[in-house]
Design brief:
11 helices
């Protein structure tokens, strides 16, 4: 079993985005190669999978079974899985050629890597539904705590500095795009400002 799928996706975005906010470099050529590989994998998967009459419950069970994280309860994991499926629907999974077994076999893969795409309305639904599961700001801040790099005071400062729009942007990007996320200049500047104020930049 792996850590929470939500935590994995958020951590991937946070690590990459924090590096940019703190002055790291972004390798465009590497991103291009990754996208090409993802496209090939998705095509092969869609061609080989037999989706049959898979229902929503089967996808929810697969998401929960592929998750294990002490920071979230089983109830929260199932709530997140339900929020995810309420937003994308079985039709969205079928269109992407994703089966429950794909989710179990690739527990760390983001929706984008699996070939799942979201409309703007689906993203809004995901945000609304997921907020019923857990404090998203707390979840985002905990993603910065990988490796115990920052103090409790710095993390508390980070939480106070996040506004809802920034939290929403980071959360939805991590949930729908994973490490394929390319932050806007505005988001990067916002994060850099907050991290700087909390002594977390540099």
């Amino acid at each position: 079993m792996t850590r929470s799928r939500i935590a994995v996706w958020m951590c991937a975005v946070v690590v990459g985005l924090a590096a940019v906010a703190c002055g790291g470099d972004d390798d465009d050529s590497a991103d291009t190669t990754k996208d090409d590989d993802t496209s090939s994998e998705t095509t092969a998967k869609a061609d080989s999978n037999d989706l049959g009459d898979t229902d929503e419950a089967a996808y929810i069970d697969a998401i929960v079974e592929a998750s294990e994280d002490p920071s979230t309860t089983d109830e929260q994991e199932r709530c997140f899985a339900q929020a995810f499926m309420t937003s994308i629907g079985v039709d969205g999974m079928v269109e992407a050629g994703v089966t429950p077994d794909d989710i179990r076999n690739e527990p760390d893969a983001s929706p984008a890597k699996l070939g799942i795409t979201f409309t703007d309305d689906q993203r809004e639904t995901l945000w609304t539904e997921a907020n019923q599961c857990v404090d998203i700001t707390d979840l985002l801040v905990s993603s910065f705590d990988e490796g115990d790099v920052y103090t409790d005071e710095q993390l508390a400062c980070l939480k106070d500095g996040f506004d809802e729009d920034l939290v929403k942007s980071l959360f939805l990007s991590s949930m729908t795009e994973g490490d394929d996320y390319e932050p806007s200049v505005e988001v990067t500047q916002q994060l850099a400002t907050v991290m700087g104020q909390c002594g977390m930049a540099g």
